[in-house]
């Protein structure tokens, strides 16, 4: 397994999360006024989700679990193989869904919902890193 590449991806996520935390306001009204800074927060969150998706795709490839038809297929395969538990899979699916909303701005982005998700879900990245890196280290020993 490409441990250095996994570590590098999680380091980028940590940088993104730190920047988000440094710029995220304490309340919704101030958040709405951030302008380009708010767009930067959205982009950093989006990029962090993309890095998580890269990591799970890399695990799928490194463990030679087959060629998936997309991210959901990767997640389901990793859960089926008992590499990721259902809680992790649901977190990643939720992140992916929010990322899709940010990227495509379906309708008009609900800033209150976006603010609440970003504010409440940032810790999920750290949780996933700990769990995934633990899995990677165990798999390397096998």
Largest beta-sheet details: none
Strand composition percent: under 5%
When the domains are counted, the total is: 1
**Residue-averaged pLDDT:** 94
The shape, in one word, is elongated
Give the CATH superfamily.
Answer: bsu32300-like
* Topology-level CATH name: Four Helix Bundle (Hemerythrin (Met), subunit A)
How would you spell out the order of helices and strands?
Answer: HHHHHH
Assigned CATH architecture: Up-down Bundle
Write the layout of secondary structure elements.
Layout: H1 3-23, H2 28-32, H3 36-62, H4 71-80, H5 86-104, H6 111-141
Helix pairs in contact: 1-3, 1-6, 3-4, 3-5, 3-6, 4-5
Could you please describe the fold and organization of this structure?
The chain has helices spanning 3-23, 28-32, 36-62, 71-80, 86-104, 111-141. Helix 3 crosses helix 5. With 142 residues, it is mainly α. It has 6 helices and no strands. The protein has one domain (3-141): bsu32300-like (Four Helix Bundle (Hemerythrin (Met), subunit A), Up-down Bundle), CATH 1.20.120.
Brief sketch in words of this structure:
With 142 residues, the chain is mainly α.
């Amino acid at each position: 397994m490409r441990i250095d590449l996994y570590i590098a991806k999680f380091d980028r996520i940590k940088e993104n999360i730190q920047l988000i935390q440094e710029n995220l306001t304490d309340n919704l009204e101030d958040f709405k006024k951030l302008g380009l800074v708010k767009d930067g927060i959205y982009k950093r969150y989006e990029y962090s989700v993309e890095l998580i998706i890269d990591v799970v795709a890399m695990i799928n490839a490194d463990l030679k679990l087959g060629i998936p038809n997309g991210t959901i297929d990767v997640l389901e395969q990793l859960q089926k193989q008992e590499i990721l538990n259902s809680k992790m899979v649901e977190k990643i699916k939720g992140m992916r869904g929010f990322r899709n909303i940010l990227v495509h701005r379906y309708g008009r982005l609900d800033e209150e919902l976006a603010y609440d998700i970003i504010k409440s879900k940032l810790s999920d990245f750290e949780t996933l890193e700990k769990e995934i890196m633990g899995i990677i280290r165990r798999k390397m020993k096998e």
